[in-house]
């Protein structure tokens, strides 16, 4: 082959290569530069039947040389033509512009859902391009579960706590309390998220010992549910101090009183102080005119001792009892029997709450028959002794 023919062939090859390269640059430059910058879901772990919003951010890059039309955006199952949601004719997007496209989807079955956001755009020259973005969503089984707990407070009201143990929000919560077939009251609560509790109180004063039924009606996933519980109203019995197991020792006009201060309630009594009241016929005396006991726990007791001076005809000693219970100061009086008797007698006495106005009878004395027998023995002894002396001068 001649040198001239080699030159002709080389020039022809260069022209052919240059022509192909020019065609590739032209095609690439005419295509829009679109980017799906982000895809997000409104819920990280939705439940079956719950609506989830999937939002795709579509951008026409600043380096693009033409405006694009977003013809279609859709969410479909990965590697499948099955479509969950489709939005068409979104509009035009100039270079450097972006748009968010929200799409609502829901799922009937639980499990990991592998999805694809598919975007179809059209350039100014009429050509179309498709773009895809993968996204995964974990779907849980729907669990609607709410429960009620009821407690009775010290202030004679009943507290109801509504707890959402499910995995979806519940709303339109209405609580109704009834007793003996009659409605006591209805209360309403705000929307409650999963693992969250809300409380409300019902006035149940005067219903001690009665059964109260509480029903909650609420909505979840556009369905109505109910929860019901019953509760027997039982108000706590406040602490109450009574003097028990009392013994008195009397010597002349002096009296010593010993016993127990018992808490017959089911709350603690604090700052318990017992003292002899000063009256016309009774006076507190040293060393124990009053006695500080302190705290007496519910159902427990503590000992005490008091000393007093009484007139001869006095049959009882008023003992004042002061204490604090449930942040309230209480003062009561009990009467301790100290009926006249032997100066060294020790006997159990009865106590009386001043609210009853009842006083016990006096202390026991020797029976008349016993006294007569003693006198008969003394008379017989004296007579016998006189006869003996007469016979033995």
Structure in words:
- With 393 residues, the protein is mainly β.
- The chain folds into three domains: 30-139, Immunoglobulin-like (Sandwich); 146-232, Immunoglobulin-like (Sandwich), CATH 2.60.40.10; 241-353, Immunoglobulins (Immunoglobulin-like, Sandwich), CATH 2.60.40.10.
- It is built from two helices and 24 strands.
- The protein has helices spanning 3-30, 368-391, and strands at 34-41, 52-60, 68-77, 83-93, 98-105, 111-122, 128-139, 146-152, 157-164, 171-179, 182-189, 196-203, 211-220, 223-232, 241-251, 254-263, 269-276, 282-284, 290-296, 301-310, 316-325, 328-337, 346-348, 351-353.
- The strands form six sheets. Strands 18-20-16-15-23 form a five-stranded antiparallel sheet, with no helix packed on it. The chain has a five-stranded antiparallel sheet with strand order 19-17-21-22-24, with no helix packed on it. The chain has a four-stranded antiparallel sheet with strand order 4-3-6-7, with no helix packed on it.
- A hairpin with a 2-residue loop joins strand 21 (316-325) and strand 22 (328-337).
- The longest helix is centred in the N-terminal third of the chain and has 28 residues, at 3-30.
- It is rod-shaped and about 125 Å long.
- The termini are far apart.
- The model is unreliable at 1-30 and 341-393 (pLDDT under 50).
- Keywords: Membrane, Transmembrane, Transmembrane helix.
- Residues 350-365 have a biased composition (Polar residues).
- Residues 339-349 have a biased composition (Low complexity).
